[in-house]
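ARCHIVE CARD
CATEGORY: sequence design from structure
SOURCE FIELD: tokenized fold
FIELD CONTENT:
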């Protein structure tokens, strides 16, 4: 996936300290040496993927450049996708609809520097308006700031729900770029623009067969792009549920032979279902039991927790105190420039929240998502203290 940061620089401004801390953070995260673009207005550092030595930054004869961080799906990847993004980039406009995936694109085009996010909003980009820094890494941008302030609302959302809603993060000084945002790098800092996203207010009353054809066409478009870009370099989970079966079916429909795995012990339901499917369809299945590892000795646990912390970019929701199996699996899933594809939304209402088969009000649906905790402990705290900690002391 790679990574990057951009630091704005005013005339005669020395920002060597922030740049050094950002570079140190990216080194801690495991990135190799970056490619640097330095102008009078900013310093931009583009980092290669973990398994690549090439950054893939494209420079043009007129002095422009273009770079893509993340996974951009189109008629091709790498230089082909970068050129498509560059040629289709219009000042201040969102990414064109023909490009799919989760990514950020950085351009210098005709004297204007912009960072554009994908249309879905799956790629998270962090920025600090006051510090005039943009980074693909939450840990890196936090490491570069002189102080961080926990906010009461964000802290409560993170503790109770595991995520901070909207465009905020845990810290007041760091923001999450909005969906479909364009960040313009100017002489005075960062200007962040995002289109107005209106919720759907109408129902589609088309016939069931017509709607199915429309949905199949959308899926074919996406998986066709995956097939063109990655071929058999695809790894996917198979639990036996709706999402994973649908993903596997579409990968095979488009001629791909993905590497398939399932998590759990031999007697667990997911493993039994996945094994039955693999046997019936005639493909290999890797069974990974993350709990079968031996217990870590105390002397190794501190290093393991630290690796887990960095693997989640310092901003995970499931904790860092585990045996490290998931951290290693995250790396292994994408070994050899492989794309990892997993499901998680097909039966979200029935499976994830165990809602019964009945009618619900909008408020009840919202409660099932965001109120799965006892509010009594929160009421006992009258006013949460705003905590400021020096990033150098963390």
């Amino acid at each position: 996936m790679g990574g990057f940061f951009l630091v704005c620089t005013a005339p005669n401004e020395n920002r060597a300290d922030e740049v050094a801390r950002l570079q140190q953070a990216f080194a801690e995260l495991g990135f190799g040496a970056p490619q640097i673009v330095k102008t009078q207005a900013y310093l931009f550092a583009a980092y290669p993927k973990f398994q690549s030595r090439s950054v893939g930054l494209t420079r043009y004869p007129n002095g422009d450049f273009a770079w893509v961080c993340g996974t951009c799906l189109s008629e091709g990847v790498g230089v082909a996708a970068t050129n498509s993004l560059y040629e289709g980039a219009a000042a201040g406009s969102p990414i064109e609809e023909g490009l799919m995936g989760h990514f950020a694109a950085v351009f210098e085009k005709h004297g204007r520097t912009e960072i554009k996010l994908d249309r879905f909003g799956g790629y998270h980009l962090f920025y600090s308006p006051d510090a005039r820094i943009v980074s693909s890494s939450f840990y890196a941008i936090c490491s570069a700031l002189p102080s961080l302030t926990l906010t009461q609302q964000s802290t409560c959302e993170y503790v109770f729900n595991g995520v901070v809603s909207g465009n905020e993060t845990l810290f007041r000084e760091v923001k999450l770029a909005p969906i479909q945002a364009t960040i313009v790098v100017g002489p005075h800092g960062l200007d962040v623009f995002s289109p107005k996203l209106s919720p759907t207010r109408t129902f589609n009353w088309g016939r069931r067969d017509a709607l199915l054809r429309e949905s199949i066409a959308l899926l074919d478009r996406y998986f066709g792009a995956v097939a063109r870009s990655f071929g058999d370099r695809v790894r996917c989970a198979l639990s036996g549920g709706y999402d994973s079966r649908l993903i596997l079916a579409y990968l095979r429909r488009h001629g791909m032979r993905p590497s398939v795995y399932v998590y759990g012990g031999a007697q667990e339901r997911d493993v039994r279902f996945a094994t039955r499917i693999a046997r019936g369809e005639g493909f290999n299945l890797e069974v990974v039991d993350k709990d079968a590892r031996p217990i870590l000795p105390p002397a190794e646990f501190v290093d393991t927790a630290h690796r887990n912390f960095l693997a989640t970019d310092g901003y995970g929701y499931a904790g860092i105190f585990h045996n490290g199996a998931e951290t290693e699996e995250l790396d292994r899933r994408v070994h050899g420039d492989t794309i990892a594809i997993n499901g998680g939304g097909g039966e979200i209402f029935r499976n994830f929240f165990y809602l019964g088969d009945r009618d619900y009000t909008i408020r009840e649906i919202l409660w099932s998502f965001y109120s799965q905790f006892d509010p009594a402990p929160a009421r006992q705290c009258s006013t949460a203290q705003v905590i400021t900690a020096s990033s150098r002391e963390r």
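CARD ANNOTATION: Residues 382-394 have pLDDT under 50 and may be disordered. The CA atoms of residues 264 and 291 lie 8 Å apart.
SHELF: design records, drawer C
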